[in-house]
Amino acid sequence: MSENPGTPLIVQSDHSLMMDVHDPGFEVARGEISPFAELEKSPEHMHTYRISPLSLWNAASAGLTPSHITETLDKWSRFPVPENVKYQITDTISRFGKLVLHPGPEEGQLYLEITEEYIRKELPGHKSLQKYLVPYENGFLIEFLHRGTIKQALIKLGYPVKDEVPLRPGDPLDVKLIETTKSGKPFNIRDYQKDASNSFLGDGKPGSGFGALVLPCGAGKTIIGIDVMVKLGMKTLILATNVAAARQWMREIIDKTSLTEDEVGEYSGRSKEIKPVTVATYQVITWRPDKNHPFPHFPIFHKENWGLIIYDEVHLLPAPVFRVTAEIQAIRRLGLTATLIREDGREDEVFCLVGPKRYDVPWKDLEARGWIAEANCKEIRVPLPEDLMMKYATATPRTGYRIACENPVKIEVAKYLLKHHRGEPTLVIGQYLTQLKELSDALNAPIITGKTPNSKREELFGAFRNGEIKVLVVSKVANFSIDLPDASIAIQVSGTFGSRQEEAQRLGRILRPKERSSYFYSLVSSFTSEETFGANRQKFLTEQGYKYTIEQWDS
Asked: pTM surpassing 0.85?
């Protein structure tokens, strides 16, 4: 219990915030600081947030002022808020709104209004901006096509642009939600899903209709995307991570709206349908014959009069799509993700090209309300056989990591876990195909990899969903946007070097609400680099509030 009930917050001079979970004011305080601070860790007793330039610009774009933020900190802080933190909040937010983008005086032009003279004088000196800026009144004229490029360059310099250029209306789409799905089940949108879609849409005025929504895997981000599409009633393009994810979107749209199969198209390597609602894959959009050729499928963004583009798993937005996203700033843009973490550090580009974070909800909140499953996370340390120890010791770091990942003892551990959870729907997930094939044979379980034909993938995923298959061995193709609602056990045998993104997605495979608890096992070779990378991966789980235990395998 805190010494001063009702003051759960400790604000530190490094801009980190510590929140006492056991303080009576915790729940209310958390809700009030989350719009301007990023959650970093949420273990059992003390949650840690951080105030960053990006979090403050997100807050400013939502209408929060420096005085509101500092008053909130004063209200909940157990000790006086450091003055340098207050100054930095005011200084950082003051940059938002000093550069405002308006329609230009002529068609094809934009006007970048800059309220501060020193900024107007500074910007032309930056090489990244020189060729785009034409002096005009209190700012510069910019060609319409350079709208996103300018926003990218300016945020790198610490100057976020407030974009108030109206978004164009797309072709109308006659679509409604239905109360009973076509599969015969009652359908209602949850309160937090409505809140998320309303946060994105805002008041419909300039400055709204673009941004990212952050919710856990299993929270129904697809439903939120559909709700936004229905409320807007405009022709929609959806970008998904792979064909299986694209077809899941199509199934959900046809099942829960008034649209028919004839109105929802697939744009993939196999099919090139353009319909009122079109679901494309990142792979086909970014395909080209070689690196010297243009991207032949980029015209899909321009040839149709889209009113909405949905980026599923926006944290995975491929670099080439950033480029085309910079060109389509006149279209409403919705990003959906479980985490805005990008291993390449390009979160600021999601902010300026897709839009600011409009909604976020902690994973554990939805678990407490029964909307996602309770998850138990365990790391099992597995000894490396003696005959592999010398190979590991003399190998290059990359080769050594693979030796550790493909530790054959993991097969024995996987067998034990399957026996312990006999009959429960289980995914065995890994990185290396040789290892996965060995596991498939040893466990007598079917396998899905990147080489598995889409028709076969659909067949196996379908059999897993309806209970015909209880164990499925999958490569990283199953990380993203695959709806396997009954999966309750995940056994991770290998993964990408310390990727928190991947950990989030793999955990998400078992978070669909269900009566039983879910278990997420990560098998790690003892005294190897896999432990080091595993520490970074498990950081994501503890940040989201999950208890993470480590056990030693004793055969």
From this structure: no
